[in-house]
UniProtKB/TrEMBL annotation, chain A:
Domain of life the protein comes from: Eukaryota
Keyword match Signal: yes
Species name: Neurospora tetrasperma (strain FGSC 2508 / ATCC MYA-4615 / P0657)
Keywords associated with the record: Signal
UniProt keyword Signal present: yes
Name of the featured protein: Cyclin-dependent protein kinase regulator pho80
Signal sequence region: 1-20
TrEMBL record, chain B:
SUPFAM superfamilies: Quinoprotein alcohol dehydrogenase-like
Family from the record: Belongs to the EMC1 family.
Gene Ontology terms: biological process: protein folding in endoplasmic reticulum
Residues annotated as domain EMC1 first beta-propeller: 21-420
Protein name, as recorded: ER membrane protein complex subunit 1
Length: 206, 972
């Protein structure tokens, strides 16, 4: 069954590989010091557009403020990452946050590190390298959405050296010098203006 | 060529003389270099005459680190060296020389090469498919040319090739696909013998295939012995070659009997070995003219003895000629032949004795005169000369000692000794000379007693100190003179102490052979002490997981991967001494690395198990520490340590088909002078200075052309701060990263088409990335006003998620680089250099950070404001400028790692490189702005002052007299 599902998803991926695709990943949290099952935190959708500038901003499509908050004394550490509930394993790198991030007055920000050129991965997660979380103080003066935000940090294209312009050679192996424009090509507009002026100017109408 | 001229012109602009690495008058003054070969191997070391008519012979060796070299036997100076494999090796290889030939033949791995014996130039280099198992020079051939026989193991088949001695061309090739294990090749005047092992492991038979030397056709095949009597291939001790009657000798696995057979004969003879023999060596001449005599050297746990055997050429019967007396203690034998005469040299820990092979009369005996207490020679080679017209002999022996030295003993005197044990270094660290603890203790004592007692104590102490006054006064003139003339004070009689500049540091070096060396970086790298820590069994190497120096106590801790721990304590005192405590290696390797954790009593190393679990955690470890370890699936894990317990906090899992190739972190001492960079327009870009960051370089092999992915991790939270992907990277070439301050750099080999598609490029590259708090100047982002910062906690100011802004630039290098290290200075004010080893140029280069600057303007000249900032126009290529090579003309080979440490003066960083050679120097990336250079002429200064003083003294009475006369002179 699982195989079928993954086959189907693989087909889907193949079909939509060329175009932009919205991928949704489940984010789970788990206390570092306990072996309890990770609990659902949020679901983040992001756009895998080839051109990141045209991509739709990532959205947190579901968010459950952690219940464990009640018995946290503010200092417990939590592990956060993409979790495969069926396989019961983390399918991305995990990072650690303190439970204070979920405190009052902080807007949750989920940071996904994404490498869209990655073709291999497990579950539905091919791209998400790791997940981080930050609670950021809500600006009381601003009337904005205080809801959970998602930030996608994409793997940058490695910088390539900026080469000098190549030397163009003619078939004879000589260096091609771009031909200088003739005086006529360069200053035809001066002549045109002079002509227009001299033609249109006319005499003094005597 | 268009590019170079354009380049050099650009470089003239780009690299002002400020980047010059070494001035001529500093060579040999600030730097030191041990030009080394490695420990000579028994089978690949010999005396050989490089010119047929010359009397003088040279000492040739192929060492256990893969260096082939020639040494002048009278001075111990290296004449030439060749690094055969391009990098450090684990021993092996073959080296032979034909009698009277001016070339040497060597083989390593899959290649056979020949070298000019005089100057070490390559004659030819041939690569083959199989692995070379043996190499021999044919002394006699049909065309008066000496050829090379090379035995290969090619995919389970045995291949013997005869290569022309002139150009390495294959004369004939013999191939056998019997599945036997090829062992050695041998030859006498007309036949070639291939010796292989037939059968299965533990029960082999020796098989000798006889070939015609002229055509390589198989003539016969013999299997020696009826039953499988060779247990292991190490039991075959010797297959003689180029002798009138080459022999093959092997023992049973309990070393009770020696079995010898003359090659080409089916019969074998057995000789009983002395009781309790643990190992056997055979020494036989390698010249056809020599008498077919050989010596069997048997070692027991308490001593050694030797027996000499003769082979009857007519009947091929081997008879025992005589036996040398058993001597307790270690000893080494070597053979020397002079025409038909064969001499055996015996080196024991007390004397050097020579015998003739014909009788046991002692031809010469010299007691060993060594400076060291006891000399233990492990193996050696020797050359015996009969003095013309007399009956006396002279002998010189080059021997490897148990302290990893190579010494030459001439008639009992040690003429030279080379510290070849410094090669194969696996770890090193700088350590401060420990200050005398007494003064600190007394001062503390005085502080705690009542004022009167303290005063009396102090006066007493000062009176006691008066005894050092005469020596101090006596030294003043010499010190003054040396200061004026610029000569160095000899440090022999002076107690080892720190100097005001901080150049005087010690280097503790550990080698894979289990030796510890202490070098004085302030005194040309002089070896102050050496000590064997472990007696490692053959084939085992000392692998070091972590090394750590405590500067206040002078204790260096070395954690090995094999459950071993070594402490080197440098004892303060007038004579230098070290104390080494070690817990020997045991069991199988169980440590992947070592983690440095802060404890109540200072930082300490803790071993990290193969599964990533820290071991031996104690309760005195300070809380809130995270160690980064490799997990069993090669992932990275952050391990939080609290109360002696460890919890895996985060995991960094790479995508499938990616693997980590290198990890770099900021050095422990990484002083940052300024938190921002002032730009030309007086705005400031603030540096991202998170101390808990790590650069991980991974190779992505999911695509046909692999790519390199560089991740920047926060080690406390495990968050991926930044990542970038470089396409078209060769994963088999060296990929390495270094990190300092707010930037990191990685080097790799790339071959790709540029993303704009216009051009493609191929070459070694270096990418450098700067990290800033935000993209914009004068903006510190959301954390701008925060007093402190936690990677884990929330952020108390509204804004965006704080992530570093990365500015990168890539350059093409004109040569590959490895062993990256960043210079360190005390305050971090001095600009930095990226130090790297040039494996192809054999030097250490310092690339200024000014050149590796991501903000260099591309495609235009810098504006006035940018020029003010020190930015120079971007040029895609970085030429390795000879002026920036710190090793200047020295040929430094096989550097595996470079370490740097700050000196007391801000301008200077101490540098030490190890691997095969050992090199050390001082680097001043922004010049010596705080020290008077050697060029400062103190003589002129003092001369001028003296001249002015003299002038004043002469002129002032004259002026005074004139003034008085003027006053008294009555106006007329």
């Amino acid at each position: 069954m699982r195989l079928l599902a993954s086959l189907a998803s693989a087909l889907l991926v193949a079909a939509t590989a060329a175009t932009a695709q919205v991928i949704t990943v489940p984010i789970y949290i788990q206390p570092v010091n306990s072996s309890s099952v990770p609990s659902f935190l949020a679901e983040v959708s992001y756009d895998t557009a080839q051109d990141p500038s045209s991509a739709v901003a990532p959205v947190v499509s579901a968010y459950e403020a952690p219940e464990i908050l009640d018995d946290l004394r503010g200092h417990e550490l939590l592990r956060i990452g993409v979790y495969d509930k069926a396989e019961k394993k983390w399918v991305s790198s995990t990072s650690v946050i303190s439970a204070e991030n979920f405190g009052k007055g902080y807007a949750p920000h989920i940071v996904l590190s994404v490498d869209e050129s990655n073709q291999e991965g497990s579950y539905d997660n091919r791209h998400v390298l790791g997940v981080a979380f930050k609670g950021i103080r809500i600006d009381a003066g601003q009337t904005r959405d205080f809801g959970p935000q998602a930030v996608v940090v994409r793997t940058a294209q490695g910088k390539q050296p900026e080469l000098n312009k190549p030397v163009v050679l003619s078939p004879e192996g000589k260096q091609v010098v771009p031909q200088e424009k003739t005086l006529l090509q360069k200053y035809w507009w001066v002549i045109a203006i002079v002509m227009v002026l001299s033609l249109g100017g006319g005499g003094d109408g005597k | 060529m268009h590019l170079p001229t354009q380049l050099s012109a650009l470089l003239l602009v780009a690299l002002p003389s400020a980047v010059r690495a070494v001035f001529q008058d500093e060579v040999g003054h600030i730097d030191y270099h041990y030009e080394l070969l490695g420990l000579p191997q028994r089978e690949t070391t010999f005396f050989h005459k490089p010119r047929r008519d010359d009397k003088a012979s040279l000492l040739y060796t192929l060492s256990d680190v893969g260096v082939l070299g020639a040494v002048n036997p009278s001075s111990g100076a290296i004449l030439w060296r060749q690094l055969l494999n391009g990098t450090i090796t684990d021993g092996g290889g073959f080296l032979r020389a034909g009698e009277g030939q001016n070339w040497l033949a060597s083989a390593y791995g899959q290649s056979v090469h020949a070298w000019d014996a005089v100057n070490g130039r390559n004659k030819f280099w041939m690569d083959f498919a199989g692995e070379v198992k043996d190499l021999e020079v044919m002394e006699m051939t049909e065309n008066n040319r000496k050829d090379i026989l090379a035995l290969f193991d090619e995919n389970e088949s045995t291949v013997l090739r005869r290569l022309s001695g002139n150009d390495g061309r294959v004369v004939w090739e013999y191939m056998e696909t019997s599945g036997d294990v090829p062992l050695q090749v041998s030859t006498n005047v007309e036949k070639v013998f291939v010796i292989s092992l037939r059968g299965s492991a533990g029960a082999y038979n020796l098989k000798v295939t006889i070939l015609d030397a002229l055509s390589g056709k198989r003539e016969d095949e013999l299997v020696l012995g009826t039953k499988a009597d060779v247990h292991d291939k190490d039991d075959v001790i010797l297959v003689g070659a180029n002798s009138a009657a080459p022999i093959i000798a092997w023992t049973d696995d309990t070393r009770q009997q020696l079995r010898v057979s003359v090659l080409g004969q089916k019969t074998r003879q057995e000789f009983a070995l002395p009781a309790d023999t643990i190992s056997v060596e055979i020494h036989a001449p390698h010249i056809v003219q020599s008498q077919p005599h050989f010596l069997v050297h048997s070692k027991t746990s308490t001593g050694h003895t030797a027996e000499v055997y003769h082979v009857n050429l007519r009947t091929n019967v081997i008879t025992k000629a005589y036996q040398l007396p058993f001597t307790s203690g270690p000893g080494a034998f070597s053979t020397s032949s002079n025409g038909a005469n064969v001499y055996f040299t015996r080196i024991t820990d007390e004397e050097l004795v020579i015998f003739s092979s014909t009788s046991d009369t002692v031809l010469g005996r010299w007691p060993l005169k060594t400076t060291e207490s006891r000399l233990v020679a492990l193996h050696g080679v020797s050359e015996v000369v009969k003095k013309a017209g007399t009956d006396s002999y002279a002998v010189r022996s080059a021997a490897v000692t148990d302290t990893d030295e190579w010494i030459l003993i001439r008639n009992g005197d040690v003429v030279w000794s080379r510290p070849e044990g410094l090669t194969g270094a696996v770890a090193a660290t700088f350590v401060e000379i420990p200050e005398s603890e007494n003064l600190a203790k007394t001062l503390e004592q005085e502080a705690h007693s009542n004022p009167l007692e303290a005063y009396i104590h102090r006066v007493k102490r000062h009176l006691e100190d008066l005894q050092y006054l005469p020596t101090y006064l006596k030294n003043i003139p010499t010190r003054l003179m040396s200061s004026i003339l610029g000569t160095e004070v000899s440090s022999h009689d002076v107690k080892l102490a720190r100097d005001t500049f901080g150049f005087h540091k010690l280097v503790v070096l550990a080698t894979r052979r289990g030796m510890i060396y202490v070098l004085d970086a302030g005194d040309h790298g002089k070896i102050l002490a050496s000590k064997r820590v472990f007696d490692l069994p053959t084939g085992q190497k000392w692998a070091v997981a972590g090394i750590k120096a405590d500067d206040s106590t002078g204790i260096v801790t070395i954690l090995g991967t094999n459950n071993d721990e070594t402490t080197v304590k440098i004892l303060p005192g007038t004579s230098f001494n070290i104390e080494v405590l070690s817990k020997g290696p045991e069991g199988s390797p169980a440590t992947q690395s070592a983690a440095l954790l802060n404890t109540v009593s200072g930082p300490r190393l803790f071993p990290v198990g193969l599964d990533g679990e820290l071991q031996g955690l104690t309760s005195d470890i300070l809380p809130n520490q995270v160690a980064v370890v490799r997990g069993s699936d090669k992932e990275l894990k952050g391990v939080a340590i609290a109360d002696g317990k460890q919890t895996v906090s985060w995991t960094f899992v790479l995508p499938k088909f990616q693997r980590i190739v290198d990890i770099a972190a900021r050095p422990p001492h990484d002083a940052v002078a300024s938190i921002g960079r002032v730009l030309g327009d007086r705005t400031v870009k603030y540096k991202y200075l998170n101390p808990n960051t790590l650069v991980v370089a991974a190779v992505d092999e999911s695509t046909k052309i692999p790519s390199l992915v560089i991740y920047l991790l926060d080690t406390v939270s495990g968050q991926i701060l930044a990542s970038s992907k470089h396409e078209g990277v060769d994963p088999n070439k060296h990929i390495e990263c270094a990190m300092a301050e707010n930037w990191f750099t990685c080097t790799y080999f790339g071959q790709y088409r540029l993303r704009d598609g216009a051009q493609s490029l191929k070459g070694y590259q270096i990418v450098v990335s700067d990290l800033y708090e935000t993209d914009k100047p004068n903006d510190r982002g959301v954390l701008g006003d925060a007093e402190n910062f936690s990677s884990l906690g929330p952020i108390d100011a509204p804004g965006d998620v704080p992530l570093p802004s990365v500015v990168s630039q890539t350059f093409i290098l004109s040569a590959p680089i490895s062993a990256l290290e960043v210079t360190q200075t005390r305050q971090g004010i001095t600009s930095r250099q990226v130090l790297a080893y040039l494996p192809e140029n054999h030097g250490i280069v310092g690339i200024p950070r000014m050149v590796l600057e991501p903000r260099r303007p591309v495609g235009r000249d810098p504006t006035a404001a940018e020029a003010e900032e020190g930015l120079i126009k971007y040029h895609p290529a970085i030429e390795i400028d000879p002026k920036s090579v710190h090793t200047h003309e020295r040929d430094v080979i096989g550097v595996q790692k470079i370490i740097a440490a700050p000196a007391v003066v801000e301008s200077t960083s101490l540098v030490f490189a190890y691997g095969i050679d050992v090199f050390g120097s001082r680097v001043a990336p922004s010049f010596l702005f705080d020290i008077l250079g050697k060029g400062f002429n103190k003589v002129t200064l003092i001369g001028t002052v003296l001249a002015i003083t003299a002038g004043v003294m002469i002129l002032s009475p004259m002026v005074r007299r004139k003034q008085i006369n003027a006053l008294w002179g009555a106006p007329m």
